[in-house]
Each structure stands twice: as C-alpha cells, then as structure tokens.
C-alpha cells in the first residue's frame, strides 16, 4: 500500500465545527481535498452557507451544513445525529469552534482585576463546554463502531502563560488539552483516537481580526522563530494527518503548529 493512500479519506465522513471561517474553513478544505463526505457546522448560518457555496466545486463526496451552537450540548448531539443519519457512520470529528477572550495582561484591560465573569463564562461555554459536548457526542457512535478520530483545536496559549491572550482563553485551552488526554486514554481500547492541534498565531477573524493587522504582524516577527503569522492553509497538513489512518499510532497528543513559538 502506498504511504500516500494513508491520507485518503475517500468514502469516509468528517464533521467540522466552527467551519464557516478561519481554521475550520481550512480544515474543511483539507477534508474535501482528501475525498471525504463533509458536514460543516457553525453558529453563523449565513457565513456557513457562503462557505459551503465556495467549497462546493472542491467536493468529490457529499457536502452539507448544519447550523450549530457548540455551547448548547443538545445542538451538538443533533449535529452528530444528522451526520450519522445521512452517512451511516462518522470517521473524523473536528471540535474546532472557539472564541477569543480579548487581549491578555500585556494591556491593562486584560489584567486580572479586569476579568469580566460574564465574558469568562461565555468563553468557557464555547471553548471548553463546546469541546466536551463534541467529544461526548462523537465518542458514542465511534465507540460502538470501534473506529474514529477526534481532533480538537486547542492553542499554544493552553501550554504556558501567554501575555497576549485573555485569562478565560488560556484557562479554556489548558483544560481542553487535558480533556484530550483523558478522553484519549479512555477511548484507546475502543480504537477511537483523540488528539489536539495547538496553533500559534494564524491570520483569521478571531479577536476582531487583530492578527491580520500589519502592526501585530510586525510584533510577531520577534516573537515567532519563523518570523511571521501563519496562513490558514498551514493547519491543513496536521489536520489531514490526525483525521486519517496516517496517524494510526497517535493518540493523546497536543501538537503545536506555531512557527517555533513554544520551543522558546
Ligand atoms: N487564529 C489563531 O491564531 C488561533 C490560534 C490558536 C487557536 N485558535 C483556535 O482555532 C479555532 C478557530 O478559530 P479561528 O482563529 O479560525 O477563528 P474564526 O473566528 O475565524 O473562526 C471561528 C469560527 O467559529 C464559529 N463559532 C464561534 N462561536 C461558535 C459557537 N458557539 N458554535 C459554533 N461555532 C462558533 C465562528 O462563527 C467562526 O466561523 C478556535 O478554537 C481558536 O481558539 C486560533
């Protein structure tokens, strides 16, 4: 068997949350290019519809969308049920949806005494509860079928202190990393693998699109060993690896894609 065929997702089904833009959209592209049937979901219906329209020419298999707020576990259960009804089985699920908690203690408004508890709970509801809901919903049919891969979009902000990220964000991503390890160990005997991607800065709409500003890009040149902010397509290689049989001996891993930032 050719090693390249390990990455082939032809005839398999993938689900991506937060797929209407940014990293989720790039992951969705990778799934389509590998031949998967794809269910894209997002809380933003119009943006999701536009994203699906844009990707339609790339699809070799089925492609459709389900509007889902990952902070509502019942909606996540319904998303997984819909994917199962349409495709019979789910091979890969990306728990990718997430939001920023604003800027960190590098600016005064990001310091501890300014942490707003309503915002804290909103970030945790999406970034942590949303991942738990997705893991839980995806694990059930995968366990029953004794096959599946779950991939969580975490962050290098969950690996260590991060002056530029808000408190709720770093806490949610650190919690997600151990959620991934915990689920990976439980699900390994069922042949269900769970891994996380920990991105560094990627030019997406997160945090009001700050990472797309030229002055932020300039500052990152000194912070990132590779000297630049990533393009969203630079998540695709690892996403494809973790979603496919090419990563058959990997589970419980939290893997940085960060231009070397976490190596400092
Ligand atoms: N961009 C970066 O630099 C970076 C770095 C590390 C980690 N991440 C993580 O990557 C993931 C994707 O972020 P992004 O940078 O692509 O941002 P983005 O804002 O471009 O995309 C996030 C998507 O998630 C959707 N979303 C928001 N709340 C949702 C909810 N409650 N339910 C379902 N969908 C929801 C949004 O509508 C949007 O389409 C997040 O988990 C984020 O924390 C991003």
User: Whole-number average pLDDT?
Assistant: 97
Order of helices and strands: EHEHEHEHEHEHHHE
In CATH terms, what is the fold-level topology? Rossmann fold
Give the CATH class: Alpha Beta
Number of domain units = 1
Strand line-up across the major sheet: 3-2-1-4-5-6-7
Give the N-terminus to C-terminus distance in angstroms: 39 Å
Query: In terms of structural class, how would the helical and strand content be classed?
Result: alpha/beta
The major β-sheet equals: 7 strands, parallel
The CATH architecture category equals 3-Layer(aba) Sandwich
Helix tally equals: 8
In CATH terms, the superfamily is NAD(P)-binding Rossmann-like Domain
Q: Helix fraction?
A: 40-55%
What small molecules accompany the polymer chains?
nicotinamide-adenine-dinucleotide
User: Which stretches of 5+ consecutive residues score pLDDT under 50?
Assistant: none
Query: What amount of the residues lies in strands?
Result: 5-15%
Q: Could you walk me through the main structural features you see in this protein, from its secondary elements to its overall organization?
A:
The chain is α/β, with parallel strands linked by helices and 264 residues long. The protein has a single domain, classed as 3-Layer(aba) Sandwich (Rossmann fold), CATH 3.40.50.720. It has helices at residues 22-33, 45-55, 73-87, 117-145, 167-187, 206-209, 214-223, 236-243; strands at residues 13-16, 37-42, 63-67, 92-95, 148-153, 192-199, 254-257. It has a seven-stranded parallel sheet, with helices on both faces. Strand 1 (13-16), helix 1 and strand 2 form a beta-alpha-beta unit. The N and C termini lie far apart (39 Å).
